[in-house]
User: Which sequence fits this backbone?
C-alpha cells in the first residue's frame, strides 16, 4: 500500500510508505518514470529496497509526474515525499515549492478536508502495524471497472502493496470495498485458501490480521505465527556472489555504509545470539543410501520437471523428525511469558543473494508431498537468485535449514533466526572410510549440526530431533515407516 497527501487541488504528493516490521527507511533503487510522464492509479513508479527485500511501489492516483524529489541510490525516511504528481494538467495553479532533499520528513498535518470527504487509506508497504497518520482515504471510483481490470488491480495490490480504499460514507453509496489486509496477510490467506471477504477483521480500522486468517482457516484455536522480525541470520545456501564495492588501486581500506539488509542482519544476529541461549549438537552420518535414493528419484517420472538433490531429502527428514517430536516446533513469547507451540511448519531455507542473506520459507511444508516440496524448493531458490523474494515469503518461519556444505564446509554452529526454535546446518557430503557391516569401506558421509533455543528445547528433545534426522538419512526407508 502507499502513502499520499494532497497539498492542493492540482498537485498531490506521494510519500515513502510505512514499511512496517520495525523498518523506518528504504533506498530508492530505480525510477520507472520521469517528470512529464503520465501515470495511472496502481502503476509502479519505482523500486525500493528495504531491509527485507526489493519492493515495487505503485502510485495511488492518476496524473502527470511533476517532480522526483530523490535520485536513485538515496535512502529515504518513511514519511518523506518522494514524488509529486499533477492531477489536473493544464490548470493555471502553480506548483508548491519543493523542500530540500535533505529536509526532515514532512509534518503529518495536512489541510482540513471537507466533512463529507471520504477518509484516505492509512497504508503500509509491508508489515503488521499501521502507523498513526493524518492522511485521508481516497474514495473508490463510482463506476465499476471491467472484470479484467479488477483482477489486474487485485494482483497488483497483493504483489506490490497497493492499498484498498475504505468504505465511503452513507451519503456517497459505492461498491463494497475490498477487504483491508497487509501483503503478508493476503499471502497467508492465499496459501491457506481463505477468501478474505469471509474473514471477520479484528485489527484497527477494520484491517484483517494473521490471527483472523488462522481463525478462519480452522474452527479450533490455533497458535498464530509471530510477526516476522528482522531478516534471519543463518549461514546461507549459495545463490550468487555479493557485489563488491568499487575501490581505487591505492586504497588500503574500504568503508561500506551499514544499511539495508546488512544492517538488519547485524541487528538480528546480535539480538538472537544474546537473547536466546543457544545449544548446538553434532552428528556424523553415513548418507550413502540417501545419495542412492536421490539418483533414483531423478529418474522417477513423478519427479519430472523438479530439481532433486540431497537438500530435498534432508528437508523431508527434518519435517518427519518434527512430526515425531512436535514440541521442538515452538516460539518463546517473552512479553506474555508463554511458549507458543506451532501446529504447522514454515520451513526456512537460508540463501545468499546479491542484497545479502535472506531466509524465505516454504509455507505449511509439513503438508506437502515430496514432489510438491521439491517444486517449492526450486521456486524459492530461483526467486531468491533473481532478487525477487517478497517480505511475505520471509515472514513466519518456524525452523530453518542452512546448507553450508555447498561451500565445502564440514559443519558450523548456526545462529537461530529470531523467533524460531531450531536451525539445522548441513555439511559437505564427502567420500570417507566408514565401518559398514563390519568392514571399512568408502562411504558418503556428512556432518549435521542442530542449534536450538535451550529455553524451549531441552537437551533430550534436541538430541532426539537430530538423531531422527540422522537415522532417516542413513536409512531413507524410514521416511515411509515413520511418516
Assistant:
Amino acid at each position: 500500500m502507499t502513502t499520499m497527501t494532497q497539498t492542493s487541488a492540482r498537485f498531490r504528493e506521494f510519500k515513502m510508505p510505512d514499511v512496517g516490521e520495525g523498518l523506518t527507511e528504504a533506498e530508492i533503487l530505480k525510477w520507472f518514470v520521469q517528470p512529464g510522464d503520465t501515470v495511472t492509479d496502481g502503476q509502479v513508479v519505482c523500486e525500493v529496497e528495504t531491509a527485507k527485500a526489493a519492493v515495487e511501489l505503485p502510485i495511488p492516483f492518476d496524473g502527470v509526474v511533476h517532480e522526483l524529489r530523490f535520485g536513485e541510490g538515496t535512502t529515504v525516511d518513511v514519511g518523506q515525499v518522494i514524488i509529486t504528481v499533477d492531477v489536473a494538467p493544464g490548470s493555471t495553479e502553480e506548483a508548491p515549492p519543493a523542500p530540500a532533499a535533505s529536509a526532515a520528513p514532512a509534518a503529518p498535518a495536512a489541510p482540513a478536508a471537507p466533512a463529507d470527504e471520504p477518509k484516505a487509506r492509512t497504508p503500509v508497504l509491508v508489515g503488521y502495524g499501521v502507523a498513526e497518520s493524518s492522511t485521508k482515504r481516497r474514495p473508490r471510483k463510482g463506476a465499476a471497472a471491467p472484470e479484467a481490470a479488477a483482477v489486474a488491480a487485485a494482483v497488483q495490490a497483493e504483489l506490490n502493496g497497493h492499498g484498498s480504499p475504505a468504505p465511503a460514507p452513507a451519503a456517497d453509496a459505492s461498491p463494497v470495498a475490498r477487504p483491508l489486509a497487509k501483503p503478508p496477510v493476503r499471502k497467508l490467506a492465499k496459501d491457506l485458501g481463505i477468501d478474505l471477504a469471509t474473514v471477520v477483521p479484528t485489527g484497527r480500522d477494520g484491517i484483517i490480521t494473521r490471527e483472523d486468517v488462522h481463525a478462519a482457516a480452522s474452527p479450533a484455536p490455533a497458535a498464530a505465527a509471530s510477526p516476522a522480525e528482522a531478516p534471519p541470520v543463518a549461514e546461507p545456501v549459495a545463490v550468487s556472489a555479493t557485489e563488491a564495492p568499487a575501490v581505487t588501486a591505492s586504497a588500503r581500506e574500504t568503508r561500506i555504509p551499514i544499511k539495508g539488509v546488512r544492517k538488519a542482519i547485524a541487528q538480528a544476529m546480535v539480538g538472537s545470539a544474546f537473547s536466546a541461549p543457544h545449544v548446538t549438537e553434532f552428528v556424523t552420518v553415513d548418507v550413502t543410501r540417501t545419495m542412492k535414493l536421490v539418483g533414483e528419484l531423478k529418474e522417477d517420472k513423478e519427479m519430472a520437471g523438479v530439481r532433486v538433490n540431497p537438500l530435498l531429502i534432508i528437508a523431508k527428514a527434518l519435517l518427519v523428525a518434527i512430526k515425531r517430536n512436535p514440541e521442538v516446533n515452538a516460539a518463546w513469547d517473552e512479553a506474555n511469558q508463554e511458549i507458543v507451540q506451532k501446529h504447522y511448519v514454515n520451513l526456512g531455507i537460508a540463501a545468499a543473494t546479491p542484497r545479502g542473506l535472506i531466509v524465505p520459507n516454504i509455507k505449511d511444508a509439513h503438508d506437502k508431498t515430496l514432489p510438491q516440496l521439491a517444486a517449492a524448493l526450486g521456486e524459492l531458490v530461483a526467486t531468491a537468485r533473481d532478487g525477487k523474494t517478497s517480505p511475505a515469503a520471509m515472514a513466519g518461519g518456524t525452523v530453518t535449514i542452512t546448507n553450508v556444505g555447498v561451500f565445502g564446509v564440514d559443519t558450523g554452529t548456526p545462529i537461530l533466526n529470531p523467533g524460531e526454535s531450531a536451525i539445522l546446518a548441513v555439511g559437505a557430503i564427502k567420500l570417507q572410510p566408514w565401518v559398514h557391516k563390519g568392514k571399512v569401506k568408502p562411504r558418503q558421509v556428512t556432518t549435521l549440526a542442530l542449534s536450538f533455543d535451550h529455553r524451549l528445547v531441552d537437551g533430550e528433545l534436541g538430541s532426539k530431533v537430530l538423531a531422527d534426522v540422522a537415522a532417516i538419512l542413513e536409512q531413507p526407508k524410514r521416511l515411509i515407516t515413520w511418516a
About this structure: The chain has nine helices and 23 strands.
